[in-house]
Amino acid sequence: MTSAPMVSYNPADPSDVLTEFTAPGARAAADAVEMARAAQPGWLDGGAAARAAALTAVARAIEAAAGELAALAVREVGKPIAEARAEVARTVAIWRYYAQAPYAPTGAVHEPAGGLGLLLTRRRPHGVAGLVTPWNFPYAIPSWKAAPALAAGNTVVFKPAPEATVCALRLAETVRQALPDGVFTVVPGGAAEGGAVLDTADAVSFTGSTAVGTAVVAAATARGVPVQAEMGGLNAAIVLPDADIGRAAAHIAAAIAGYAGQKCTATGRVIAVGAALEPLREALAEAVRALPVGDPAEVATVCGPVVSAGARDRVTDALDGVSVLAAGQAPEGPGWYAAPTVAEKVPPGHRLLTEEVFGPVAALLAADDLADAVRITNSVPYGLVTSVHTAGLDAALHGLDHLGTGMIRVNAPSTGVDFHLPFGGAGASGHGPREQGAAALEFYTSSRTYTLLP
């Protein structure tokens, strides 16, 4: 049976079709994994210097193509050009950071319990790392998975989201300029191709929805292979009465609507503590209305289109049954635009308070005190990131100990990550070891213990 064609559209102008293709199928994906497996021993045996030089060359190649890559992200996934340029710059930095990792210690020497000999621990690569990546960060996410995997001596096969197919193919073309054949392979397609990678790779790293991620974790666990899954969030911003309300409102508005809220770290709930409610309510409404919404190719744009008509419908549906405090102005025209919106008087159990909408919308909530704000924050299954806004760190630090999120950002938006630090969440937001930073190298390797006797 022939697969239905897969299509990638420009979200700002759906009449602009970037590519239409027939997915290669599960067999092709499995073959790609076998080719990567054949290439892996040579990649590892080439040594640390060769891997470091190759990853440095990848960084240079991406940097040389930066303008083209950024423009392509604007066109294929609707990312505002300022964010697209920043993502490409971060991608270059990621590859440069991990280019030093092949020289990092991989183990330790221990004294034996008795007698002569040596006890060694050493971390070794798994083999083939299978990466399943989303469309919203088409360069950074594949890179922060692939670069540490390659640095540790694995080879890589990655299956991108169909909506970012052209970006993924262009990234792969750029990366492969610096790598041997079979070391880095992209397999475009859908569920069949992703399932084949999951069924054959030696380690699996996934970023996407909680529903799919849960199935990925179950399948990989059943096979007995290492798996990590980053699965989104319903993140809160807590604002204490002593906060700089104007600054907090600006940070929160940007975290709600930047890139149309299509980030796992976007703010979905705004929790005003005590007397902060009324001034924050006014300042946040003003900040949301002032956000530039429109063509992602314009430098001033903060909130561009959502990725599809279905995504736009989900945003609209999520606002049923709530009062709108403030909404921006979505442009007229052919694109899939959704207005940045803050809702209030949201009833308990409403979708805005229980699900990740993945659009530029958030609910404003009130808390009696910091303990109440922490309780509200922790009341959802997700646990990715919380932002806390306050002028006095004593109360914030006390509250931070009780937050159930993997990342906490004080006086900063919930969005934004530091690629050299661990990234990930708890509960429905994540499973397995953290991504990014040195923690990623641990996921892409396993520890072995050696006993050497004379």
Helix content: 25-40%
CATH C-level category of the largest domain: Alpha Beta
Number of helices, counting only DSSP H or I runs of 4 residues or more: 15
Morphology: globular
- Note poorly predicted spans: none
Number of domains: 2
Q: How does the helix and strand content classify structurally?
A: alpha/beta
Return the CATH topology of the largest domain: Aldehyde Dehydrogenase, Chain A, domain 1
Strand-residue fraction?
A: 15-25%
* Cα separation of the termini: 62 Å
Number of strands: 20
Mean pLDDT: 96
Spatial order of the strands in the main sheet?
12-13-14-11-10-16-17
| CATH homologous superfamily assignment of the largest domain | Aldehyde Dehydrogenase, Chain A, domain 1
Name a few traits of the molecule.
454 residues; alpha/beta; Aldehyde Dehydrogenase, Chain A, domain 1; Aldehyde Dehydrogenase, Chain A, domain 2; 2 domains; 7-stranded mixed sheet; 6-stranded mixed sheet; 15 helices
